[in-house]
Design brief:
The protein has 332 residues and is α/β, with parallel strands linked by helices. The protein has 2 domains: 5-98 and 292-331, NAD(P)-binding Rossmann-like Domain (Rossmann fold, 3-Layer(aba) Sandwich), CATH 3.40.50.720; 102-283, 3-Layer(aba) Sandwich (Rossmann fold). The chain is built from 14 helices and 12 strands. It has helices at 14-21, 37-44, 60-64, 84-89, 102-117, 120-128, 157-166, 183-189, 196-202, 222-227, 245-253, 273-276, 292-309, 325-331; strands spanning 5-8, 25-28, 49-52, 71-74, 93-95, 150-153, 173-176, 191-193, 205-208, 233-236, 259-262, 281-283. The strands form 2 sheets. Strands 8-7-6-9-10-11-12 form a 7-stranded parallel sheet, sandwiched between helices. Helix 5 crosses helix 7. The longest helix has 18 residues, at 292-309. It starts with a strand and ends with a helix. (2R)-2,3-dihydroxypropanoic acid binds at residues 54, 76-78, 101, 289.
């Protein structure tokens, strides 16, 4: 019997391709060519499954054109690239990679926050440009973290991992989320629930870790930035589009906000020119989960999910992180 065909849309660890090849006829993009919508559709034709990346848009029109597709396994915890309703209606199982990246992403959130508040990259660029002629007492004065208030918008797994780390800096944590955490979790995290307006007004440092959706689009725009302290910093670890990057660039340029740290951007890999033009922003290319160990764990989990979702391997029929469990229930 011939093996089912799958597509791996972007380059991934070769060992993962080898493992998938035990079960599937693998079309893998190990050259990491950019696949636009038309190329993605062409490569997916006749495939039973896909190991996808957060940048691969799998929408209703694409789903309708792919009657053979049975599983879409994202190598990312975020899945705003998928039209989950269309996948569910078509009986296609969708999975993501939660948990394995939580701690690594939270570590990076702190790296970005510290670099932002203490002007690490700005001062390094200045030094590398040969501008350091003498020391002075007011060089690159930043904002303290210790003792200041950390605000977190979105209090899921990554938000909670960020909050746990705040204890080491003696920082009280305030948060806003769609739903409030149980009291004992709040107590363990030393985190206090506040309204979104309260979060904006009281945070000395605000980190965004909420999922992207039509509802969370531009959660931080000109009106929200105007409610923040001019001495505050803002870190976006979540997704491009959560922040109105044009409004943020303007607020940074006019020093209505002290600084920002951004790992994700609207329309990435393009970055708003206004952000590139201001010194008080730290910019990184969507690497929050990019440690060797974690990227391997994400790739392994996505591969395990694909194998199981296509009824192969030791977990056949039981992928572990299913976004649309109705589909699996219907299959049984
Ligand atoms: C995720 O897992 O969602 C990260 O942003 C990588 O895409």
């Amino acid at each position: 019997m011939s093996k089912p065909s799958i597509l791996v849309t972007r380059a991934v660890f070769p060992e993962v391709i080898d493992r998938l090849a035990q079960y599937f006829d693998v079309d893998s993009n190990q050259q990491d060519e950019a696949l636009d919508a038309a190329a993605l559709k062409a490569r997916l034709a006749g495939k039973a499954g896909v190991l996808a990346n957060a940048a691969d848009r799998i929408d209703g029109a694409l789903v309708a054109a792919l009657p053979a597709l049975r599983a879409v396994c994202n190598m990312a915890v975020g899945y705003n690239n998928l039209d989950v309703a269309a996948l569910t209606a078509a009986g296609i199982v969708a999975t993501n990679t939660p948990d394995v990246l939580t701690e690594t992403t939270a570590d990076f959130g702190w790296a970005l926050l510290m670099a932002t508040a203490r002007r690490v990259t700005e001062s390094e660029h200045w030094l590398r440009a040969g501008k350091w002629e003498r020391w002075s007492f007011d060089m690159f004065l930043g904002m303290d973290l210790h003792g200041s208030t950390l605000g977190i918008l979105g209090m899921g797994r990554i938000g909670q991992a960020l909050a746990r780390r705040a204890a080491g800096f003696g920082m009280p944590v305030i948060y806003h989320n769609r739903s409030r955490l149980p009291e004992d979790t709040e107590r363990a995290l030393n985190a206090r629930y506040v309204s979104k307006a309260g979060l904006l007004a009281q945070s000395d440092h605000l980190i965004l870790v909420l999922p992207y959706s039509a509802q969370s689009h531009h959660s931080i725009g000109a009106a929200e930035l105007a409610q923040m302290k001019p001495s505050a910093t803002l870190v976006n670890l979540a997704r491009g589009g959560i922040v109105d990057d044009a409004a943020l660039a303007e607020a940074l340029r006019e020093r209505r906000l002290f600084a920002a740290g951004l790992d994700v951007f609207e329309g990435e890999p393009q970055v708003h020119p206004g952000l590139l033009a201001v010194p008080n922003v730290v910019l990184t290319p969507h690497i929050a989960s990019a440690s060797e160990k974690t990227r391997r764990a994400m790739a392994d989990l996505a591969a395990d999910n694909l194998i199981a979702a296509l009824d192969a391997g030791p977990q056949a029929g039981h992928p572990s992180s299913v976004i649309n469990p109705d589909v699996m229930a219907r299959r049984r």
